[in-house]
Amino acid sequence: MKKRMVPAALAIAAILAAAGAAAKEAPQKTPGGMVLVRGGVFKDTKSNYFGKDVTIPSFYIGRYDVTQKEWKTVMGNNPSKFAGDDLPVEMVSWYDSIEYCNRRSLKEGLKPYYRIDKTRKDPNNKPDPHFGDLDRIKWTVTTNRNANGYRLPTEAEWEYAASGGQLSRSFTYSGSEDVNEVAWYWRNSGDMQLAGFWNWPALRENHDRTHPVGLKKPNELGLYDLSGNVREWCWDWYGDLPDRARNPQGSASGYRRVWRGGGWMSGAAFTAVAFRGNLAANGAGPDQGFRVCRNK
């Protein structure tokens, strides 16, 4: 009897081992509306991080900017200047974006990525050396890096994704050398194509504005609107490029947060993958939005 049981036990063990191996190899399902960005070093020769020995772990990022429909579903309001379900949400501060990430995480049964303390001023939020204390909110926001909830991309993650990750073809703009193929910016975001120098009355008369997400050509990873439409908040404090190269997670303190990608009222140069912008965390505008990430 024992001799018969041994082969059977071995067979069961082999089946269980194979099942375990298959489970380990089974690909994790990509969350809805997101794209898996496979990690690695920067391939984009125009990137701020190229050749700086910076490696980005794999992560998920939204295929599109957060839309007004998505915002309203989570937050119950719509702060945007230009109304439309498929338009990117705008007029949102960095703090608004952080709150959205946590509320959406809770709504979907995920662990929030941010710890938000609204009662304590963040000592790392410094006064602007030129303009003083522009940010009077200064919530203390810390992270739980093991959480599976939604978050903002780091500046390095944003640039890695915008440049096409491991599939990068080193385009100036996210997905093309032709800004008009991939970006809504001041010349093409209104009724007619504008020429000459940037001029706000001309933009206003031309009805320049945001456009529904996903209408332009995607980049190498299938991501849309990383150049133009709305500027996108990143997690980081704004700092010098050498600091970013040494530490992709960014500086521990600062006085402004990073935005990337440019927007509908920006010049083409501001929509380039390598351009770095910044704004006080409580700042907002009709060209200021964001997209979300999640850890893999």
What do these coordinates show?
By secondary structure, the protein is α+β, with helices and mostly antiparallel strands. Helix content is 24%, strand content 15%. The protein has one domain (35-295): paralog of FGE (formylglycine-generating enzyme) (Alpha-Beta Complex), CATH 3.90.1580. The protein has seven helices and eleven strands. The strands form four sheets. The chain has a four-stranded mixed sheet. The protein has a three-stranded antiparallel sheet with strand order 1-4-11, with no helix packed on it.
Provide key terms for this protein.
single chain; 296 residues; alpha+beta; paralog of FGE (formylglycine-generating enzyme); four-stranded mixed sheet; three-stranded antiparallel sheet; 7 helices; globular
Topology:
Blueprint: H1 2-25, E1 34-37, E2 40-41, E3 55-56, E4 59-62, H2 68-75, H3 94-107, E5 114-121, E6 139-143, H4 155-162, H5 179-182, H6 200-205, E7 231-237, H7 241-246, E8 257-260, E9 277-279, E10 288-289, E11 293-295
Parallel strand pairs: 7-10
Antiparallel strand pairs: 1-4, 2-3, 4-11, 5-6, 7-8, 8-9
